[in-house]
UniProtKB/TrEMBL annotation:
It catalyses: adenylyl-molybdopterin + molybdate = Mo-molybdopterin + AMP + H(+). InterPro entries: MoaB/Mog-like_dom_sf, MoaB/Mog_dom, MoeA-like, MoeA_C_domain_IV, MoeA_C_domain_IV_sf, MoeA_linker/N, MoeA_linker/N_sf. GO terms for biological process: Mo-molybdopterin cofactor biosynthetic process. This is Molybdopterin molybdenumtransferase. It comes from the Bacteria. The lineage of its organism: Bacteria, Bacillati, Actinomycetota, Actinomycetes, Micromonosporales. SMART domains: MoCF_biosynth (SM00852). Catalyzes the insertion of molybdate into adenylated molybdopterin with the concomitant release of AMP. It comes from Actinoplanes nipponensis. Its EC number is 2.10.1.1. Residues 187-333 form the MoaB/Mog domain.
Amino acid sequence: MAAATFPRRYGRPVTTEPPMAWTEARAVAYAAGRAARPEPVAAPLAEADGLTLASPLTARTDMPAFPVSTVDGYAVRGPGPWPVVGRVLAGSVPEPLRPGTAVQIATGAMVPAATEHIIRVEDADQRPGGLVSGVAPPARQWREPGDEAAGGDELLPAGVPVTPAVIGLAAISGHDTLPVTPAASAAVVVFGDELLTAGPPGRGRIRDGLGPQLPAWLRRLGAATPAGLAGPGPVEDTLPAQTAAVEAALKHAEVVCTVGGTMHGPVDHLRAALAALGGRHLVDRVAVRPGWSMLLAEIPVPGGPPRFVVGMPGNPQSAIVTLVSLVAPLLDGLAGRAERPLPTVRLTEPARGRGGATHLLPVRVEHGAATPVRHAGSAMLRGLARADGFAVIAPGTDGAAGDVLPWAPLPLVPGGRP
């Protein structure tokens, strides 16, 4: 990936707009990613897992390409009993079947031309003298060319995530490569003089709990996270240091997730750093709790598509709410995946809303039932470690037991979201 350069300008931006609605912020993030998605590439099948089809997958031939036996048995022509005049194994091209004869045939073998029936081996009777008899079943015991698809048929549309099953379908339909959207690269930059990277917390210092986990979440969302894109540890709380760290990460990553510095306190420099890099705010504060101060900025790249900075608040739960609110739809857009509607769950117990803001409530989901987790304060990770995602309580409402609510799942499975 070529390193990017950025125009620089200085000045602290002043935010006067009200916070954006949570659903609108997700839509803005998706649209921004979709507009900036990279050109497709042809990926070898072994390297395509987890990427997204950039154009429809079509059948190169009829599927199957020739009549294929679905059983072990005998291909016969005419009335029996039949003399067995040969054997057809998978991978061979048989001669047409002569009238009044049979050939032994294996599952997966090409059916000889002029075959009238295939008698399963368990229904056949081998007679003395090499004759075979049996009753042909009423159903055809082979697949005709085009049973699954005709040559040129669309098998899957563009935008479908590539799974092992998609790779297998591509292979049997004759493809050696797949047209895919390459994975966006992502980096994490953590701000904070108070953060430790080893040992127990104490004496005014706390352990960084987000720097170690965010790259794994990003990989589960389909991003590439090459080692060494960000610095080895938290960045000090000064404007020059934070500007330099973000700029360095943006040279090699399409998406940079920063942690901390999204408020307007004395050491919150992210907005000024983005201004210095020529950033344009797409989302600046979201009416959601936790995570109110999250932001998304577009950084122009002369001669190329923009790159993105997602500003995550420093509280752990607020940062993970930002992950499902802005990062997940942004990466879906960059990957060319279809915009995914949120699934629903049934709340098992009452839960309070957060006034005029959307409330993202950490829940554990089993069989479609969502139970709020304990130890779920915005600075806590204990509850989040047991959560499957966040139930979405709409502004101005509370959640009642039995309510069916949207939920934003966490990407718990490597390489994709549930």
